[in-house]
Amino acid sequence: MTHHAELTQGLAAIGLELTPEQITLLEGYLGLLAKWNQTYNLTAIREEERMVSYHLLDSLTLVPHLAGGTRLLDVGSGGGMPGIPAAIARPDLQVVVLDANHKKTTFLRQAVIELKLPNVEVITDRVEAYQPAQKFDRITSRAFSELAEFVKLSKHLLADGGQFVAMKGVYPYEEIAQLPEDFAVSEVLPLSVPGLDAERHLVRVVAK
To answer: Minimum mean pLDDT among 52-66, 75-89, 92-106, 149-163: which range?
Structure first.
């Protein structure tokens, strides 16, 4: 199966309707990720064909759960997941991709330029030191840290009434139990990623 066929079938399975232009952008991002990964070690997944499910479709399962948000922060974005695919799927969303690794943010800046993504800002900083002018109504992370650490380090960036939407593998019972007392889980949703035979969950955390 071609990358294009796998991506379009996966989008249909997730229930995301994207334009041909958006699909072209996702494929362009995949190509850049595979190219830069040879030098910059952006992801442990080396084979471009595996990146469709492991990175694109996995990241895009977040998108249906961002309703009501206008500003999204992707903490520890690495190679841009899930922030870049989310920004492509939701051009109305202002997305900040943040990582402390200069090599990774160099790639992210180049990807934003080449893909012409006006709704994405790249920040090189540690999350606990980041002080933007405006806070975020949605904060996500795919592989940054355990849930409690993620919330503790980035809670100063959450707008009033905002939500953490953390992407996890197996149901994170222990991580949820370690959450700071002033935060609570509002829901844990199982996610189904086309082409990926692994458990995935989305954990929504809100201030009490």
So the answer is: 52-66
Number of structural domains (the chain) is 1
| CA 155/CA 79 separation, integer angstroms | 23
Q: Of 98, 189, 93, which Cα lies nearest the Cα of 141?
A: 98
Q: Which residues are annotated as a binding site for S-adenosyl-L-methionine?
A: 76, 81, 127-128, 142
* Exposure on the CB side of residue 110, measured as CA atoms within 13 A: 14
Identify the CATH number of the domain in which residue 181 sits.
Answer: 3.40.50.150
- Say what the pTM is: 0.95
Give the sign of the dihedral formed by CA 55, CA 45, CA 40, CA 31: negative
- Return the axis-axis angle of helices 3-14 and 20-40, rounded to nearest 10°: 120
82 is in which domain, residue-wise? Answer: 3-207
Instruction: Output the known binding site.
Output: 76, 81, 127-128, 142
